[in-house]
Amino acid sequence: KDPITYKTKYMRLANNSDLKQEKDKIKFDNARLLAKNYKKVVSIYESDLNSKSKIIRQITTAIWILDHFCIRVGNDTNSKSKDLNSGIGCTTLKLENVHLKELKGTKYLE
Description:
The chain is mainly alpha-helical. 42% of the residues lie in helices and 7% in strands.
């Protein structure tokens, strides 16, 4: 905290700092691991789409949307914001953001 204003101060690490580079390395190593196990992950979440647990179905539906529509994960946004550039990610997705359409007997998300 700032000793004068008592507000929390935030610092960003330089891109060339050892700590930042180590965190980036871990992030990309995790991405490589996911790529190696992608088919297994898909198999698991596809079977979980039919789970008896509502929470499991909700989580796997979010994963399915992320995978099939390549949208970002998302985060909390200011609901009062009128910013047109403010996007909606999977974690901030609401029922009114998703529309189900049917074409020739196949259902699609819009």
